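re: ur question from the group chat, yeah i did fold both. here u go
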Amino acid sequence: MSKAMQQATCSCGFSVTSGDEDEVVAVIQTHAHDEHKKEMTRNDVRAMMKDV
């Protein structure tokens, strides 16, 4: 059985989709830091995620 794809989308429209939750979290955390000067916890990102 394949893993569910998960997606997180920033309020600016940046989006990442992956079957690897760790990758989604890392990419969104990096984006938030680099583009918005905001720190996000793993739980912050998980709250944004949805299965696609």
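okk and heres the other one u asked abt
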Amino acid sequence: MLRDYIYDNKFQIWIFDNKINITNYIDIISFSEEYLIIKCPNSILHIKGENLIISKLLTEELLIKGKILNIEFR
């Protein structure tokens, strides 16, 4: 939608080596060093990994670092 583009409020995820950047998520449901569950606008994001840390935590942006083993939308 044009509104999403102008206001940049569309859910987005960028996957890099050993880090994931997420914007416009709704909530963090659960977090541990091995598993992270994030509520997104239309689904639930499950991230499985090792030594996971949240290195950036803002109202609309999240940066997760660690060894990413699996990413799944449910």
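fwiw on the second one: The first strand starts at residue 12 and ends at 16. The chain has a mean pLDDT of 89. idk if thats what u expected
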